Structure formats: structure tokens, C-alpha cells
Amino acid sequence: MQCREFGEMVDSYLKDELLIETNHGVITHLEACPACRSELAARRETREALRRAFDHAPEFQLRPEFAFQLRNELKMEAFGKRNSSDNLFAFVMRPQWLAIAACLVVAGMVGIFAFRPQGGSPNELARTATSGEVRSDLPAGELSGAAVRLASFEKTEAAIGDHQNCAIKYNLPEEPIDLNEAGRKYDTAYIDLAQAVRSGEGLRAGDIKYVEDHSCIYDGRRFAHIILEHKGHTISLLVAETDEDSTKGANADVIACSQRDGFQVSCFGTKRHSVFVVSDSPEADNLMLARRLAPTVTKHIARAEV
Amino acid sequence: MFGIETRNTKREERWAGFEREALPHMPGLFRIAMWLVRDRAEAEDLVQETYAQALESFHRYRAGTNIRAWLMTIMYRTRSKRSRAAGRLRLADDSEERIAESVAFEPSVAQGLTDEEVLHALERIPQQYREAVVLSDVEELSYKEVAQVLQVPVGTVMSRLNRGRKMLRAELAVYANSYGIGAVGRKRSVDAD
């Protein structure tokens, strides 16, 4: 194979589209040709840098609310239920749809985190951010009780698939209800939680805006869900009762629990509750937001747990 | 009565196929829309119109072919129509060709650069070249699919890709050299390549 032929095939080689024999020819040529090796490395590096830049740029991220709205409107169109003279978006900007969308995205993300398959140890999952720097090498004993409890939910691999499928398809099984009503019926920690967050230290600077609150159910787990906004990103604060008491009690250490598909999940915990902050903000921003919200939220929930 | 049931079943099947095949590509489509128009509201409009048209002509989509390329083609055509309506269509001129011919070669040094710098470097190369590079290297479309999206011959795509990548690497090298990353002074002309 000559360098010219390699140049013609390099794209297909990078995309893994060559036949086995041709692929072998490319590899043989690369072994003998430093110039083409260098060209291949440069091409691969540039391509990866481009993809990374596109994947990470916050302005290129799709708003989950928009995806949800468009999907519903298209479905209505497909079933002929939409008045053709309507603007495609006139219907879908109703606030309750926005709430459902936000609830689903967050619940899906929490599901993905919480039902991570066994084998990923708490140490691998948790990165402490109490001092503002991310660490991944803490022994389990040094993690907060809440962090260990959060990182060790035991669920099956199939549950992950269900959650991913559900989050992607935006199928909400049950409509959200008023948060205070959920507080009276199911969990007293939810009563006035939104009010506490709104008047708390975290929102005082004015850069985090309150959007709305409700309680929603995902895969049998009830969440208090407070939706906020920061720098144009939708932020969700999600509180769920845990299955058992933490032996170490409340701990407001905030850790970066998980990241997936452009979403960041930071979490902290109290004696009987796990709290998640989920957004498509950069990891550092999401952690910062969680840390600002943590004191008010843990204080409020801890009072209800007494 | 049976007629209504049959119609509903067809609609359900059509929707299920569309949801399964087309909707998962929404984030990728939005990313390119946003990159093209640089305005979130306009990008959402473009994606919305693209999907509305795709749904309407979903019966024309051939299962087993690359649906992302098909959606991308619809989006580019939609954007062209909009641009024409707004009088903003700009054809590539000779000066862009001349820039492409005279670009120097640089080995890639993209690794040490931030995502923002990479995107800025991309912005500095002429539109027709960067579109080809993005569709091929970011969206992983084949030459033929890029040709279909951009409505140009395959040979033109290959030529634009070749030049576009060289220009991009040269731009990345400018950033890298300003930070002392990579190899300064290893330039050679494209003609010598």
C-alpha cells in the first residue's frame, strides 16, 4: 500500500468500515511508515478534540423540556389530534408539562445513579467536594454515611435499562402532586421544604431562581422535586426517603455522585433522606449549587426527622 | 368501524417507528442546529420544523439506511429555505478557495487545548469546509451522506474534507503555539504534502 492509498482509506479506517483484508493492509503500511502514523495520530486527535468540544459545549445541549414538548406535539400530530392551524408549540408550553418533563429527566438520572449495578464500589462512585476539590481515592470509611448509603443502593441491571428507557422516552406513569400535600400524606419533611429553599441562604444571591415544586413518583419511589434555574440551566433538587436510617446520622457533605449523558448529579444526605442536585451544568457548577443548597435543606429535613 | 381501527393501527405503527428511529437523534440534531444558527430559539425552531417534516414524510424513509443522515438532510434543506426567504444565503466565494489552497500544514496539537479553543479554531475556517468536517468527523456521516446533506458531489466533499482538516489543524496550531504547546516551526506547504 502506498501513502496515497492510505490517505484515501484513513477515514474508513478510523470509522472501522474497512474489510478485514484492507484493514490488515493499512496496519502493515502504518507499521512501516512513520509519516502516515503521524498523520493518523493527528487526524484521530483532531477528530476527538472536535467531538469532545461539541459534546461538552453547554450551548449545544438540548433542553429536556424542549425534547419532551416536541415529542408530545409530534405524537399528537401523528395521531391527527392537533389542529393544523395551531402553532406547533402553542399547546406544549403549559407549565404542568414543563414540570413533568423536569421530573422525568431528574428521576431518570437519579434512577441511573441509584440503580448502578453492583461492582462499582462507593469509592469509585463518590468524589468528595467538601473542600472544593474532587477526590476519587477516599477509603469507604472516610466517606460520609450518606455518601456510602447513596452509593450502595442494590438494584438489578435490568432496572437501569428500564430507567434509561423511561427517561429517554419521557413516559411518566403518574402526574406530580403538590409538595405540601405529599408532605401531609407521605413524608413530613416535604412540608414547607420549597418555602425553606426559596427563603434560604442558597437563593439569596439572586443567581439561582426558583421555578416550581411538586412531588413525583418514579419506579415506586416518591421524590420531593424543586425546580430551579441557574445561568439558563434547569436545576432539580430531589429529595427521597431512604430505606433505612444512616448509622452516622445527618451529613451535609456534598459529593459528585454521578455523571451521564451530559447530566451531573451531586448528592448529600440526612439521617433518613437522600438529596440529589441534578443539572446539565458543568460538574463544578453543579457541585457549587448543591453545596449552597445543602445547609438549608439538611437543616429543614433534620427538623422533621427528630 | 374496521376502517377506523385499521387507520389507528397504521398511525400507531407509524408513530412507534418514528419514535424508535428518529427521536433518539434529537440531541445530535439540535447540536448541529445550534452550531449552524447560533441562537437557541432559532435552533429549536429549526429542529422542530425538521421533525415535523420528517414525520410527514416518514413513509419515504428507507429502513436500514442512516436515519441521522436523512434527518440532517431535511434540516439543511429547511435551513436553506429559511435562509433564502430571509435573503441570507451566502455562496462560497473564490477567496475562500484561495485561502484553502494556501493553508499551511500543521501536525495536530489539539490535545492541550480547551473545548472553547477548539470551537473557536473551527470558526476560523470557511463555512463550506467546516461543515464538511463537522458532518464527517463529529456526526460520523459517510462521504456519500455528507454529499447528500450538503447537496454537492462526493468528490467535492472529499476535497473539502481534506482542505478543511488541514485548515483546522493549522488554526489549532496557532492556539497551541500561543500557549507553547506542540511543535513550532514544523510547517510545510500543502503543495509539498
Write a concise keyword list for the protein shown above:
heterodimer, A: 306 residues, alpha+beta, Phosphorylase Kinase, domain 1, seven-stranded antiparallel sheet, 11 helices, 7 strands, 47% helix, elongated, B: 193 residues, mainly alpha, two-stranded antiparallel ribbon, 9 helices, 68% helix, 2% strand, disordered C terminus
Helix and strand arrangement:
The complex is a heterodimer of chains A (306) and B (193).
Chain A: H1 3-14, H2 20-32, H3 34-56, H4 64-78, H5 95-114, H6 122-125, E1 127-128, H7 145-151, H8 157-169, H9 179-185, H10 193-199, E2 208-218, E3 221-230, E4 233-241, E5 251-260, E6 263-269, E7 273-279, H11 283-305
Antiparallel strand pairs in A: 1-5, 2-3, 3-4, 4-7, 5-6, 6-7
Helix pairs in contact in A: 4-5, 5-8
Chain B: H1 2-21, H2 26-37, H3 40-56, H4 67-85, H5 94-102, E1 104-105, H6 115-123, H7 127-138, H8 143-150, H9 154-178, E2 188-189
Antiparallel strand pairs in B: 1-2
